[in-house]
Amino acid sequence: MPRLFYVLLAIVLLFMACQQQSSNQITIAVIPKGTTAPFWNAVKAGAIQAAQELGVKMLWMGPELEDNRQQQIALVDNQVMNQVSGIVLAPLDENALRRPVRSAVDRGIPVVIMDSGLKDAEDIYSSFVATDNYLAGKLAAEHMGEILEGKGRIVVLRYLEGSASTDKRENGFMEGLKAFPAMKIISDEQYGGPTKAKAQQVSENIIMRFRNDTGDAGFDGAFCPNGAMTYGMLQALKRSRLLEKVRIIGIDADPALVTALENREVAGLVVQNPIKIGYQSVKTMFQVLQGQNVEKRIDTGVVFISPDDLAKPDIKELIYPDLDKWLSQY
Questions:
Q1: pLDDT (tens digit, 9 = 90+) per residue, 200-232?
Q2: Which among 153, 175, 184, 311 is least surrounded, fewest beta carbons within 10 Å?
Q3: How far apart are the C-alpha atoms of 277 and 250, rounded to whole Å?
Q4: Domain membership of residue 30 as a residue range
């Protein structure tokens, strides 16, 4: 009996050693939509945290701007050639990235999609880790209706064509606003583009289009589906001295937008959990590589924050994360 015990113990220890060795040999490439927005820094922090806890190597790379589809495609193809263990990808375009993702999987490299979906590709990728973006848009519409007491003219500043995550937010908002018959969307065809500067320019054009002779903006509320769009609309309204006339609801808690929320320049923000997105995406890929079953769709949550919510402890933790704790270690 003692001899059998020591044999079994040796087998267990050998198995654990092999598992540790295999973890050390795992390399996960994480490819976001871009590398400059505060949102992606938070995703990166979560990815670093997961990689350190799991003992795997994490590579972080992505386009500088969130409209460079060809660069992102090249990055995926390069990591396939480098034979990384797995790829975590936030597709810039729900159609254009299907081919490189399929190519990766065909060559034995699993892919986890994060943040933004890939069209007609559920049979290809292992899991999709993201906010329920449609729900985020509906949540914004619900609060816009409450803030404007169910009536008013609304502008929707879209982001980029082909961006699945923001498309769902925009569609969710417009669907949610149907609950308020006295509210009318007067513009939903303008795309702000990949930068804050472009978003501000498009917002200024919208203001010029609707501003009336009395000096009013011509609209009462603006919905912006991400941080850059929200910031661009905010600056355009400031520049036109119309900020007190229009209620803005945006998505994402960029530091500048949190400050605007504190100053009540923004009526509310629908906030994701980007650290959780990065963390859960890398963790899910690790589980895939270990042969474990994973959920096909993992929802990382979303919450609406008004200026009055900023003092709540759970909200503080969400919008004032200590990113340097992790980013300094990469």
A1: 999 999 999 999 888 899 999 999 999 999 999
A2: 311
A3: 19
A4: 2-131+274-299
